[in-house]
Amino acid sequence: MKRGKIVLMHIGIFIVLSILLVLFAESILIVVAPGFHHVEMWIALIIYGILGIFLTLLISCIVFLMKKKKQVQ
Fold it and tell me: What keywords tag this UniProt record (predicted)?
């Protein structure tokens, strides 16, 4: 797999997971904190969730690129 394709795949996954988080954030919040319906909690869930997704996919992308580099050498 080419380097650009790996990066594009991770960007695509990030976009899809971020959209899913925004769409299902209210449902997740109801399960995690029933009875609390504060906008601040919803916004925090979105921000920290997207940050977590980004960091996880960044690490994954770096690992994939390092594996690719080792296979070439």
Answer: Membrane, Transmembrane, Transmembrane helix
